[in-house]
Design a protein that fits this description.
205 residues, Rossmann fold, 2 domains
Length: 205
C-alpha cells in the first residue's frame, strides 16, 4: 500500500473545491430577488440586540439611514449608543423604554411607553429616508400584550418594499415568526451571570 503524494492529495482537494464552487455558482444564479427583509432575533441566549446593532453599523458603512427604537431598555449609557451617536446624519435613536416591567411595577405606564414607542417606530418606518429600522425588544412588549399583535403585524407586512426591519427580544410570537423572512434563535449554553458575575461595560452594555 502506497501513500498518496502531497501533490496528489492537493489535486483531489482542488477538484472537489472546483465542484463545490460550480454548484454554489449555479445556486447563487437563482437568487435574483432584492427586497426589504423582516428579521427576528429571539431566544434566551445573549446577543440579540448586539447582532441587530452590528447590522445597523454595517448599514451605516454603506451610507444607509438607520432608525432605532428601544422599547424596553432605559436611558442608561451603553457602548453601542455612544458609537452610533457619532453618526447623527445617518442614525436616529429613540430610547422610549423605562426599564423592564419589574422595575417600573406599573403596567399602565408600561403600556403607555410601548404605545409611544410604536408610534415613533411607525413614523420612522413611513419616512423613505430610512433603509433599516431596529425595533429593539419589541418582542417583549408583544409577549405581554402591551400592543395588539394584529396591528403590529399589519404595519410590518404593509411597510414599503425596500425597508429592512429587525426585531429583537425573547419569546417572539409565533405569528411574527410566521411572517418574518429571517429568524435567528440565540441559545444560551453558559452565562457568567449564573456564576455571580455582574453585567460589565463593553460586554453587556
Amino acid at each position: 500500500m502506497t501513500l498518496d503524494s502531497e501533490e496528489e492529495i492537493n489535486r483531489r482537494a482542488n477538484e472537489k473545491s472546483a465542484k463545490r464552487k460550480a454548484a454554489r455558482d449555479r445556486m447563487m444564479a437563482t437568487k435574483t430577488i432584492e427586497k426589504g427583509l423582516l428579521i427576528v432575533h429571539t431566544g434566551k441566549g445573549k446577543g440579540k440586540s448586539t447582532a441587530a446593532f452590528g447590522m445597523a453599523m454595517r448599514a451605516i458603512g454603506h451610507g444607509f439611514r438607520v432608525g432605532i427604537v428601544q422599547f424596553v431598555k432605559g436611558r442608561w449609557e451603553t457602548g453601542e449608543r455612544a458609537v452610533l451617536n457619532r453618526f447623527p446624519e445617518l442614525v436616529t435613536i429613540k430610547t422610549m423604554g423605562e426599564g423592564f416591567t419589574w422595575e417600573t411595577q406599573d403596567r399602565a405606564r408600561d403600556i403607555a411607553a410601548a404605545r409611544a414607542a410604536w408610534a415613533e417606530a411607525m413614523r420612522l418606518m413611513a419616512d423613505p429616508a430610512y433603509r433599516l429600522i431596529v425595533l429593539d425588544e419589541l418582542n417583549i412588549v408583544l409577549r405581554y400584550d402591551y400592543l395588539a399583535i394584529e396591528d403590529v403585524l399589519g404595519k410590518l407586512i404593509g411597510r414599503r418594499p425596500d425597508l429592512h426591519v429587525i426585531i429583537t427580544g425573547r419569546n417572539a410570537r409565533e405569528e411574527l415568526i410566521a411572517v418574518a423572512d429571517l429568524v435567528t434563535e440565540m441559545t444560551m449554553i453558559k452565562h457568567p451571570f449564573r456564576g455571580g458575575v455582574k453585567a460589565q461595560a463593553g460586554i453587556e452594555f
